[in-house]
Design brief:
By secondary structure, this protein is of the alpha/beta class. It is built from eleven helices and ten strands. Strand 1 and strand 2 form a beta hairpin. The termini are far apart. The protein binds coenzyme A. Coenzyme A binds next to helix 2 and strand 6.
């Protein structure tokens, strides 16, 4: 089955037990709009109820996995121009609550949620030149997706702090060495590598996979932390610091926080 929701820039395919979610907004580096989060959340929620889906793959068209949250959407939220449901919250909850194994194929830029979502994936494959960043502080924001705990737990406080606060990037090889990714593959092999792993998982007993995953994750702690982070993130979005960061990106200039904090 293929359901290409062009307006929402996410392609959804289900084939031989594997749901593939392809980010398809390459002209904007797959920046995630509210509508895209909505499709991702709907798809993950549907996967949980669909016996035809045993594994979910995330991958992306174009030269990047994703440039993270759409900064125009952030700017609209910062000024109060946006008042609808923020589907990102539903997407993050669906990621955290997914019982199906999640596999990611990551190339190019993986900014913000593009990296933090990997902490909820079970198998991650990256290209050697992938560039993973979580520049929340540069945007006057705070970590999300429970990454304030999951990232330091995975790679240690010192490395996580440098990524969050200095915006330091890591490449695919480092992501493998630090335990964020399982392995690296050249771009031409990346999707096949992820698909082969997903096909293997699709043949495993789903009950055992589900219970193993549940045992390996502290779901209550993750949910509580997402709520705490989400409240702080929402507050920070409305600060003068954040407005300056978003304006600077759109005006293609460095931010000047000395004026606002
Ligand atoms: N939101 C909205 N649009 C974005 C975007 C985002 N997060 N990231 C990139 N784009 C857009 C750019 O505005 C540009 O649009 P234009 O061609 O209409 O001007 C297009 O995507 C290409 O981006 P560009 O910056 O020219 O590409 P690059 O290769 O020089 O840099 C990035 C790529 C990802 C390093 C850079 O775009 C970037 O830093 N983006 C912001 C990332 C970010 O802070 N995300 C939020 C994390 S919480």
């Amino acid at each position: 089955m293929t359901d290409a929701r062009q307006g929402d820039w996410v392609k959804v395919e289900i084939d031989a037990g594997v749901m593939t979610l392809t980010l398809a907004r390459p002209e904007k580096k797959n920046a995630l709009s509210n509508a895209m989060y909505g499709v991702l959340a709907d798809s993950l929620e549907a996967a949980e109820k669909d016996p035809a889906v045993r594994v979910v793959i995330f991958q992306a068209d174009g030269d990047s996995f994703t440039a993270g949250n759409d900064l125009q959407d952030f700017a609209a939220q910062a000024t109060g121009a946006f008042t609808g449901e923020r589907h990102v919250i539903r997407f993050l909850k669906a990621l955290a609550n997914a019982t199906r194994p999640l596999v990611a194929a990551v190339h190019g830029q993986a900014v913000g949620v593009g990296t933090t979502m990997l902490l909820h994936c079970d198998l991650v494959y990256v290209t050697p030149d992938a560039r993973l960043t979580v520049p929340f502080v540069n945007l006057a924001l705070v970590p999300e997706a429970a990454s304030s705990w999951l990232l330091p737990a995975r790679i240690g406080h010192a490395r996580a702090y440098a990524m969050f606060a200095l915006g330091e990037a890591i490449d695919g090889g480092t992501a493998v060495a630090w335990g964020i990714a399982n392995g690296s593959a050249e771009l031409s092999d990346l999707r096949a590598r992820a698909r082969a792993a997903a096909d293997q998982l699709a043949k495993k007993p789903l009950g055992a996979l589900t219970t193993t995953k549940r045992l390996m994750r502290d779901a209550e702690k993750i949910a509580a932390l997402m709520d705490t982070e989400g409240a702080l993130f929402g507050e920070r979005l409305k600060t003068a610091e954040a407005r300056e960061a978003f304006m600077a990106f759109m005006e293609r200039r460095p931010p000047d926080f000395s004026k606002v904090s």
